[in-house]
Amino acid sequence: QVQLVESGGGLVQAGGSLRLSCAASGRTFSSYAMGWFRQAPGKEREFVAAITWSGGSTYYTDSVKGRSTISRDNAKNTVYLQMNSLKPEDTAVYYCNRHPLTFGYWGQGTQVTVSS
Prior knowledge:
By secondary structure, this protein is mainly beta. About 0% of the residues lie in helices and about 45% in strands.
């Protein structure tokens, strides 16, 4: 089974930037489209961004479009999410997973907190 380890979160002021990383185990990582998701307190987990297996196409939810960039390095089994111009409403735990069909389990996530 593929293990997912997210990192890179933290506390930043509004307008700041963070780069999230997701390290995945397993030799099949490069065959999957991957996504970033987030869950804010009291809310359901939501889609943030996705990238095809080759990295040739990317997709974003409207609220982060233009402020975020998803990328991947298949040689390192890692997917990234660069987030700029962060807003307090970006505060959430961020997770990575296969997209659109998740693995059925989640990593521990990484907390992003944006102060106003």
